[in-house]
Amino acid sequence: MSGIRIGVDLGGMKIEAIALAANGTTLVRRRVPTPRDDYDATIDAIVTIVDGLEQEIGARGTVGLGTPGAVSPATGRIKNSNSTWLLDRPLAEDLAARLARPVRLDNDANCFALSEATDGGGRDAKVVFGVILGTGTGGGIVVDGRPLVGANAIGGEWGHNPLPWPESDERPGPPCYCGRRGCLETFLSGPALSRDYAAATGERRDPPAIAAAAGAGDAGAEAALRRYEDRLARGLASVINVVDPDVIVLGGGMSNIDRLYDQVPRLWAPYVFSDRVDTRLVRPAHGDSSGVRGAAWLWTIAV
Fold it and tell me: What are the beta bridge partners of residue 29?
């Protein structure tokens, strides 16, 4: 192989691929729609986009893939994915066969965390917790430059834990696709903020519009964001109490709400079991490119 590293981020709506030089410079980047609910077409799309990148740069590279869910240590197949057409499929094996080379696969949140720990917002930190706050809620932990996968391949999956220290009106919480109620994902995803705002005001807005309205003095939007910030602070405090990361990096669409970086650290202190909190909450250095960059960086990890 050349020094080229190719990363692929398999999302529910889009497939993004990137080719990085050995020093991390982006050589080429492409996006295509995800063929939803069609496993074979998804494989075809990934192969096509990788082939296209390699033809454009004139070199063959290693391939890493970030995907919703995880590879089950028991079966070697995909589990816990909200892209349900991937479930119980040998995704890494099928891609390796089609691409005629090994493929390293990891959870998309782990890839995000790895990217930010390698050369992003968590660079030089020993322990980094990467948070995805988008259409779902996920997380990944990187320790000394390596994703913490765990015995069950669910390291960092905080989105399917319950909201900590719930108020009476937060119980039992909204239903979650995992079959339970009150998961953090049902409170902290982008759609969750929109639902909460609509329930309180009778008006439907997406998160950027809610943030803009709050900034313009809209009382309903301000109240919704304050509820969101308090819930995020409680959720992250529970992570700090267990993992004690040096840095928490926010990703996903909700990470674009600027006020979170000031408000949430002010709110989490009472919930953290310490006399002071030195954990930093930071923006992602690579924005929505972090996941795909982290997939490429999977081939920098010694096995």
Answer: 18
CATH number of 5-111+288-300: 3.30.420.40
Q: Are 29 and 21 in contact (CB under 8 A)?
A: no
* pTM above threshold 0.90: yes
3-class SS at 90?
Answer: coil
Provide the residue ranges of all domains of the chain, joining segments of one domain with +. Answer: 5-111+288-300, 123-284
Fold of domain 123-284: Nucleotidyltransferase; domain 5 (3.30.420)
d(CA 107, CA 69): 6
Q: Same CATH fold, 123-284 and 5-111+288-300?
A: yes
| pLDDT, one tens digit for every residue, the chain (303 residues) | 578 999 999 988 899 999 999 888 999 999 999 999 999 999 999 999 999 999 999 999 999 999 988 899 999 999 988 788 999 999 999 999 999 999 999 999 999 999 999 999 999 999 999 999 988 899 999 999 999 999 999 999 999 999 999 999 999 999 998 899 999 999 999 999 999 999 999 999 999 999 999 999 999 999 999 999 999 999 999 999 999 999 999 999 999 999 999 999 999 999 999 999 999 999 999 988 899 999 999 998 866
**Which residues have a Cβ under 8 Å from the Cβ of 243 and sit 6 or more positions away?**
127, 129, 141
